[in-house]
Amino acid sequence: MVVQGGMDARDAAVAAVELEPFLHQVGGHLSVLKYDEHTICKPLISQEQKFYESLPLAMKQFTPQYKGTITVHLRKDSFGHISLVANPLTKSQGPFQVSRESTVAIWQTLQQTASNSGSTNPLAQWQHAQLAHSLKESPAKSLLRSEFCLSSQVLSLVEDAEKNQAQAESSSFNPWGLHCHQAHLTRLCAEYPKNKLHRFLLLENLVSQYKRPCILDLKMGTRQHGDDASEEKKARHMRKCAQSTSACLGVRICGMQVYQVDKKHFLCKDKYYGRKLSVEGFRQALYQFLHNGTHLRTELLGPIQRQLQALLSVIRSQSSYRFYSSSLLIVYDGQDLPESTSGGPHQDLQSARGSSSDNLAKVDIRMIDFAHTTYKGSWNEHTTHDGPDPGFIFGLENLIQILQNIQ
């Protein structure tokens, strides 16, 4: 349960939560951490917080529930091991000024470290030991320690993309979130004092109800840079779009994991894989996302298409919004549900999501990542756009058409 509101220092210390890497992060570059079973947190970016706080009612069913913010600080134990600890907000705390650059730079740290990584790198070994220690006790951490930290193939958590890909495809979990978490710890340790407070967003954990969450992260739209992007950043993002399916389809794969029931592990792909795909490659990857290693999950096609159509209607009604660099998550359970099952919370959920007639196929469609979203009245808006977001709509329409072809 997320605790918010005022409390004294003693209560705050008792309520402090040691954050864990979120093992089902398949895309993005900022670290996503697990707060509790139903809540994740991520570094706060003011523009994203403002979006959640002014979210149109029609969009709430297609975004994670916003649960407020918390403060996070580094904690070092008597052995010198570093962890991130979250404390509930107190009423006496003033507003934080958090720039996008300070959080995006976390990913740059990862890229810089990657060029110097390897089993003989003392810094990489120290970082590996830090994370291995911080991942003890919980089931997720135990899995991580036995299957990731002790593997001879992963002596460093920061490796080049090709090696990451080979490891991901044979792992029982997705390592992408660990790399983001490692970059985050590296930056915080290097640039901030231990008692520095950092503000994080609290959001709904969208996969908490799933036993084997299959997740597809799609970068939506034909344009990824925000209105306030520098010329260099603008050119870089335009180049990425032009060289990927973003330009011709309005959508590209930014990461995915799909449970393979025959091999009992997740097949994982990262954003570098998604950038290289042709249009036909994108179609094949979408087919692969719906295939569990033994058969195509055809019962999911109807629920996914209906929810995408509903989202399309909502986006068309949002004038002035531009969801630059936002992603769309498609989530379902890789654990097949018995067709004879009836009643219960799953049926209630699917009735609400419009798919109760598809053998209780649990499917979620959610938009995430709104750091570059602009709209009329947003705090740093310099350009007011007219009408709904054409790039996002273009991507949704193509995605729906490809799913219809698969069906």
TrEMBL record:
GO terms, biological process: inositol phosphate biosynthetic process; phosphatidylinositol phosphate biosynthetic process
Any single Pfam family the record assigns to this protein: IPK
EC annotation from Swiss-Prot or TrEMBL: 2.7.-.-
GO molecular function: ATP binding; inositol hexakisphosphate kinase activity
Keywords: ATP-binding, Kinase, Nucleotide-binding, Transferase
Gene Ontology CC annotations of this record: cytoplasm; nucleus
Coiled coil: none
Enzyme superclass (EC): transferase
Family: Belongs to the inositol phosphokinase (IPK) family.
Protein name, entry field: Kinase
Lineage, uppermost ranks: Eukaryota, Metazoa, Chordata, Craniata, Vertebrata
Gene designation per UniProt: IP6K3
